[in-house]
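Box 4.2: Ligand-aware structure prediction
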Amino acid sequence: MSGLKIAPVTFGREGRIGLILIDNPPVNAISGAVIAGLTEALNRFEAADDLDVLVLYCAGRTFVAGADIAIFEDPGFSAQPFNTLLARIESQSRPVVAALHGTVLGGGLELAMACHHRVARPGTRLGLPEVKIGLIPGSLGTQRLPRLVGADLALEMITNGRMIDAAKALQSGLIDVITDGEPRAIGLEALTALLALGASPRRTSQLGVRPASPEVLDKAEAAASKKPGWPQLAAAVRCVRAAQTLPYAEGEVMEAAEFERLLSSPSSKALRHLFFAEREASKIPGLARETTLRPIRKVGIVGAGTMGGGIAMNFANAGIPTVLVEVNAEALQRGLDLVRKNYEASAAKGWLTAGQVSQRMGLLQGALDYAALADCDLVIEAVFENLALKQEVCAKLGAVARPGAIIATNTSTLDVDVLARATGRPADVVGMHFFSPANVMRLLEVVRGAKTEPDVLATVMKLAAAIGKVAVVSGVCYGFIGNRMAEVYMREADFMIMEGAEPAQVDAAVESLGFAMGPCRMLDMAGVDVGAKAVIEHGKVGGLPDDPSYRALVQQLFKLGRHGQKTAKGYYRYEGRTPASDPEVMTMARELADQYGMVRQQGPGADEIVERLLYPLINEGLKILEEGIAYRPEDIDVVWVAGYGFPDFRGGPMWMADSIGLDVIAKRLAHYAARRGDAHGYWKPAKLLLELIASNRPLAKWGR
Ligand code: COA
């Protein structure tokens, strides 16, 4: 468009139509420069008497996808300049149309709602996702959305942060028309229609609100009170309530106050940190963005158990044909049946149509022979966690996979380099550590071996995004990032129970911080047998400390057949899925403590439990950084939040470490070392911890 370029905004005209184009890649986020550009563009429009209407649209992949989240960290940030601009757009005496495409989110939707009419391309999605970063919409989203779609839907959209599609937006009144074409063209087309109708400005703030019932609001309030770590939910309900009970101007004041308060809250800062951490994690240092990727058109998986089947679902969901290989027909059928059952359960909940279920099942093929893997571009072994077995499978995969195919292992603890050697082509090998249930859990640890080719790594990272995973790269070590850190966490859980704490106390201490599940409930759910066998296998390769009491409790529970939920007994007794304390476990713990000469206490208090679970874990994270296993502290945070139920509003263990204070952590490690003795180096501080304290630097700045 020819016109006045006010980077990153351009003002132009076509006949009697004014045109404002925002071009601020990658997602046209609202920044100071965009606000300045829009302000200047509005000046031009207001000064041009010969223009009848205004169209606002965006270049690139999307309409404005929100405020630039990075500017929230500026100490002087205020939503006011943008809000004033929106009020000015709305008050125009000539109609203003927003032409929408892509993902119209946050400040982008608030901008669109300040315009008088909205036209969208099919496929456009709209939402107010601010709750996900610990905020509420701060540019009148909580006041304008209820006026357009009613308080019921507004409440739902603002509290769940999810997008709605163009059809729903049209039906609810959020947009006026859906038209296919380039944003500029659909804006012009909509305007022509409006002009023909003699349409005048329709100001959202002046509309009435179709109210939600008091029951709906009360229910939303009750739901919000169950998530105290997410204060943005209760704030959102208060604002929507205000929208339907108070004049617009008073609702505006209320939203501004709530937004300000949340903006500086630790929980929002933590969630904003995670937003960027997840995106940063996908970048591999030293790897050029333009690295040519290997094509992945077909995937093969060896092992159709719960894990293999769950992994296969990810690819089928993304439309990638997948073949599952098993050793015998019954096991294969069981695996495929389980996948179908999972899909049918989703269909019963209304998440999938019957057609989607059969389409996805149609992408899955079963086979009993490795030959079926010969034309796959990626083969993943998902057999039982046993080194000899995995080596054998890897050797077969190395022989059968076509040249250039990627060979991945789903091991959770074993040495990826050893497995890579077994294939005979280690450059093609990478670890893909999925978390159970693999079709649900978002985390994927991608393990780079010593010989893994960069394009293999890059391909898998890209593929991870395509199947909806958040991927983090880990180097090779026992347990990689997540399970290595979980090991010290579970070590202390066992020790504290042997010293006199009840499993329920251990769990409650971290659950009260917002953990999805404490270590004992987690082990009971994942399987005490799985946990104990990992310890035993680690012992066989000489990986355990010379300490017979090391994770003695989990091994004893395993020996006694207490495998957790599935045997109705583990750290707890179960009726259904409800855990109850079991005195037998405490007796067993006491006997083990006596056997190993451990000093029993009255029972560690909640503060001690939290410190002993989290500080060694954080310390292990620091060791992982100093050894180069993880690229960045943020990667570790992503692993723990996406894979281990660490509370997102605390930002992950490394983020939390800074807020606790690195010096505090070091002092408490020293305290426990002194009290309990440290013959096995359990409390030895990471070198990096001491270095950061000595140089008075936070972990967040590490590596920068
Ligand atoms: N502020 C700043 N940067 C943003 C951003 C925002 N609101 N939204 C996206 N980005 C950046 C990402 O950090 C990423 O940058 P990078 O390539 O340097 O890593 C880039 O835009 C692309 O985002 P990404 O999420 O990787 O792409 P996508 O196509 O998968 O998803 C969105 C695009 C817009 C759906 C997604 O980024 C998103 O949900 N953004 C947040 C929207 C939001 O919360 N808005 C309200 C803010 S108040």
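In the box above, the bound molecule is coenzyme A. Residues 26-27, 29, 65-70, 103, 105-107, 129-130, 133, 279 surround coenzyme A (CB under 6 Å).
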